[in-house]
Amino acid sequence: MNPFHKPKKHPHDIRQPILALRNITVQFGQALALHMVSFQLQKAERVAIVGPNGAGKSTLFNVIAGLLSPTDGEVKIYGHAPSHHTCIASPKKQIGSMCISHWT
Predict the structure, then answer these.
(1) What is the pLDDT of residues 17-53, one digit of tens each?
(2) Alpha-carbon distance 33 to 61, whole Å?
């Protein structure tokens, strides 16, 4: 091993989920759109969010994208809660893509 070679430090712990949702609840007035939704997404993992109209899929994506604040629960991207004071370099690069397709 070369004593002058420093291993390239990865900016994120590869064991840490890239996206973690814990007990996400979203309520609009009396309507409960999401109730205690929790999951983790690891690097290179692919998931599909499926369900009927009104199931909360778009609400979930809006919470993940930071367009909607949950009533309760927490979202973490690479272990950090996104906020106005936290700068995560280009979230669009961190989360590859979100495609919403409708089949009838």
Answers:
(1) 999 999 999 999 999 999 999 999 998 898 899 999 9
(2) 12
Amino acid present at 84 = H
Count of structural domains within the chain: 1
- Please answer whether residues 62 and 49 qualify as being in contact, where contact means their C-beta atoms are separated by less than 8 angstroms: no
Q: What does the DSSP assignment read for the chain?
A: --TT--PPPPSS-TTS-SEEEEEEEEEETTEEEEEEEEEEE-TT--------TTSSHHHHHHHHHTSS--SEEEEEETTB---TT---S-HHHHS---------
Residue closest to 37 by CA, chosen among 83, 51, 45: 51
Here the CATH number for the domain that contains residue 73 is 3.40.50.300
pTM above threshold 0.85: no
CA distances from 22 to 1, 40, 86 (A): 42, 8, 19
Q: Give the CA distances from residue 65 to residues 9, 17, 35, 83, 103, in Å, rounded to whole numbers and listed in that order.
A: 27, 16, 18, 12, 23
